[in-house]
Request: fold
Amino acid sequence: MMSDMEFPPPEKRETYPPDCTVCGGSVTPKRVTLTYPNKEAPTQVRVIDGVPAGVCDQCGEKYLLHEVVVEVERLIAAPPTRQETVSVWEYAETA
Ligand SMILES: [Zn+2]
Reply:
C-alpha cells in the first residue's frame, strides 16, 4: 500500500477541505507534481506530474481526493509515461 510514501494521507476524501487542516489557510484546486521513493531503486524517485490536488495557499499542504489516490495507484503499477534523468549536485564536505 501507500503508507510508506510521501503522499498526503490517503483518506476517503471526496472534497477538499475548505481550510487547511494544518494552518487554516485557504485551499485552492491546482495541478501538482508528486515525488516519492522507489523501493526497488532507493537512489531514484518516481515522479507523477499533473496530479489534481487542493493546495494550501499559505503552507503548501496538498490534499488529494480519494479517487485521485486510487488513480495514482493504478498509474504507478504501469510503466512510466517517460524516463527523465535527474541532475544532482553534491554539497562538498569541508574537512
Ligand atoms: Zn496550510
